[in-house]
Amino acid sequence: MDRIKIFDTTLRDGEQSPGCSMNLQEKIEVARCLERMKVDVIEAGFARSSPGDFESVSTIAKTVRDCTVASLARANTGDIDAAWDAVKCAADPRIHLFIATSPVHMEYKLKMTPEQVLEKTAAMVAYARKYCSNIEFSCEDATRSDWAFMAKVVETAIQNGATVINLPDTVGYTTPDEMRALIEYMISNVPGSDKVEYSVHCHNDLGMAVANSLAGVMGGARQIECTVNGLGERAGNTSLEEVVMAMRTRSGFFPNQPRLDTTQIYRASKTVYSIIGQTPPLNKPIVGRNAFLHESGIHQHGVLNNRLTYEILTPESVGIQVSNIVLGKHSGKHAFEDRLVHLGYQLSQEEILRCFEEFKDLCDKKKDVTDADIEAIVTHHSVRQEEAIDGYALDWFSVHTSNFTTATCTVSLKKGDEKFETVCLGDGPIDAAFKAIDQIVKPRNHAFENFTIHSISEGKDTLGDVIVKLSCNGRYYTGKGLSTDILEASITAYINAINKLCADAEQNQGKEVQ
Ligand code: KIV
Ligand code: ZN
Are the CB atoms for 9 and 226 separated by under 8 Å? Predict the structure, then answer.
């Protein structure tokens, strides 16, 4: 029986949406999560779009072994050359080529006639096929295209060597019945359809992306394109966790299952949210804080008698460990390591030791350390590592503030063996601290987009998790800080964001974005 393939485009369609940009290290971290989760295809980026994208696609192609790695390319030789250059070292490389087929896109965006689109399809699929035997071809805006014309385009693509045909609902316009009918129409009307795999790629503008993707599968599609947490242009894409758990939970309807390891879903979701500096809406299916909570008396009563009354899937099936175990200052390294393993983290001995030191520091400030605290320590650990190697790190700070004087903050930062100290006034201690950091680092002009603080667990002594988002020239930089002292968390989050802004400026200095 044909398995359903999961094509993850978090690093391309997800990453290109506003506020979701990631640096190279973060993209590699996401790619590792995707490989662990056993997605079939990772669309690692759009190699031609910028030097940074090229580098990340090619690094991921060299790093990932158990998934196909794809790069997007428009239907032109420059894009195809760059895509191939970036993915050629992958264990299983794929070029994902697209051209628009809807009247509105052909006339106003491409300024091409339908005949020209047909010719371009033939020439560019044949060109890409000379490089690579795994060619995905997408008809952009398929759901607003003329079906008979699109059938000719698809036939041309197949004749010239395409192996996967993707029919995207680019603007989230279709309905489940229509999506199913479209796939059925193509499979029965296009010669050569039995030699290729059909794929769906649904956007969520009307909230139907998951339903439309599942309908596509019912119509015969064998690949679903989706993103972790449903990230993507505008209202996002099909959410990986929702579409996969729908197929698992309703396996009677979906006998062709994906190979995905669903117990990795929660971790992947948390990793992606943490990198882009967001938290899931409380009621987000599968990964939201309330997804497995039962609040009303009637529901609680039912669940206590039998979970099946109100629970159609278990938290454990998506990797959420439900436990009441808390650690404290008497817990040793073994107990800590044991919790890490239980939570699904495989860290090196060196990383365990560093996290254990932070855990011990936390135990001095907080009586009970929960699983959420431990996860936060591990997630933030990589931030501190980055700073220790490349960027500025907080040495110490001191504030003076009240509700009747101007706040003052003295900040000392270190970079390598050097130390820098300055003092600034501000409209509150955070403003004063951020001004002092700017005065030391002198970063490029940037806009301050967002600042959030949320508590990791319950209680007044909880860890504060601070996210700072900055933007510069259309790119976003997310910084994270974690401490029981929210001022310290805010300062470290700001330094983290500023370090990323400076690193990006250095990396792309003198290089032109194509
Ligand atoms: O939404 C879309 O049409 C796309 C294609 C480029 C596959 O992302
Ligand atoms: Zn898309």
Answer: yes
Task: Determine the average pLDDT of the residues in 323-352.
Answer: 86
- For residue 511, give every residue at least 6 positions away whose Cβ sits within 8 Å of its Cβ, in sequence order, or none: 51
Strand 93-100 relative to strand 135-140, pairing: parallel
Point out which residues pair with 476 in neighbouring strands: 471
Q: Is the pLDDT of residue 511 over 60?
A: no
Q: Is 170 in the pocket of ligand 1 (CB under 6 A)?
A: yes
Determine whether the shortest distance from the Cβ of 201 to ligand 1 is under 6 A: yes
> Which atom number of ligand 1 is nearest to the Cα of residue 96?
7
Residues 6+ apart with CB under 8 A from 335: 327
20's tokens = 């979701």
Ligand 1, closest atom to CA 141? 3
Structural contact between residues 374 and 345, judged by C-beta atoms closer than 8 angstroms = no
For residue 277, give the 3-state DSSP assignment.
coil
Least confident of 29-38, 165-174, 347-356, 387-396: 387-396
**What average pLDDT does this structure show over 500-507?**
84
Q: pLDDT of 458-488, one tens digit each? A: 788 889 999 999 999 888 899 999 999 999 9
CB 432 within 8 A of CB 426: yes
Q: Please write the tens of the pLDDT for every residue from 356-370.
A: 999 999 999 888 888
What separation in Å is there between the alpha carbon of 204 and the centre of ligand 2?
A: 10
- Angle of CA points 83, 172, 3, to nearest 5°: 60
C-alpha 491/C-alpha 430 separation (Å) is 7
**CA 103 to CA 111: how far, in whole Å?**
10
Q: Which of 168, 83, 66, 193 is nearest to 134 (CA)?
A: 83
Distance CA 164, CA 222 (A): 9
φ, ψ dihedrals at 224, nearest 5° = -115, 130
Each residue's pLDDT tens digit, 222-277: 999 999 999 998 999 999 999 999 999 999 999 999 999 999 999 999 999 989 98
Going by alpha carbons, the residue nearest to atom 2 of ligand 1 is 170
Nearest to 237 by CA among 20, 68, 419, 482: 20
